[in-house]
Amino acid sequence: MLWRKVFGHEQMYLLRKIFMKLKIFFYFYLISNLLNAQSVSAATLKDSAANLGKVAGKAGVAQNVDIGVTVGRIIRGGLSAVGLIFFILIFYGGFTWMLARGDENKIKSSRNTVIAATIGLVIVLAAYALTALLGNILK
Predict the structure, then answer these.
(1) Where are the domains of the chain?
(2) Alpha-helix runs per DSSP H in 1-139
(3) pLDDT values of the chain reduced to their tens digit, one per residue, 139 residues
(4) CA 43-44-48 angle, 5° bins
(5) Neighbouring C-beta atoms of residue 117, cutoff 10 Å
(6) Are 97 and 111 in contact (CB under 8 A)?
(7) Which of 1, 26, 106, 121 is the most exposed place for a label (fewest CB within 10 A)?
């Protein structure tokens, strides 16, 4: 692994130890928040719709949003996530390519990572373009 070459055994041991402490802290935090959850009565549930409407109005959030707008926002978020994954894969492929130091197997693996990420991005963008085109035709 790349990390074993960058860090020694002592540093890897310390990183694992720190990660384990962070994981334990996260679990304690999660459990403490779950135990402090307050119960909700039926009366407060009936008032929640009215209160939510008041808060949404003061925040400037539209209360009656079309389902198409919601789906569009979800698709936009998904495409943003795909773009982030693409960037990470391209960065990883380029980074491992630079650290290959002339090793043909590592160079080939890195090149395949970059090519696969690019092909995946093209497929996702083509699917989005086709969906947008069909959506405009069917309107």
Answers:
(1) 1-36, 66-139
(2) 2-6, 9-35, 42-59, 67-98, 104-138
(3) 555 666 666 777 777 888 888 888 888 777 777 776 665 555 566 677 777 777 777 777 766 777 777 777 888 888 888 889 999 999 999 999 999 988 899 999 999 999 999 999 999 889 888 888 887 787 6
(4) 125
(5) 19
(6) yes
(7) 1
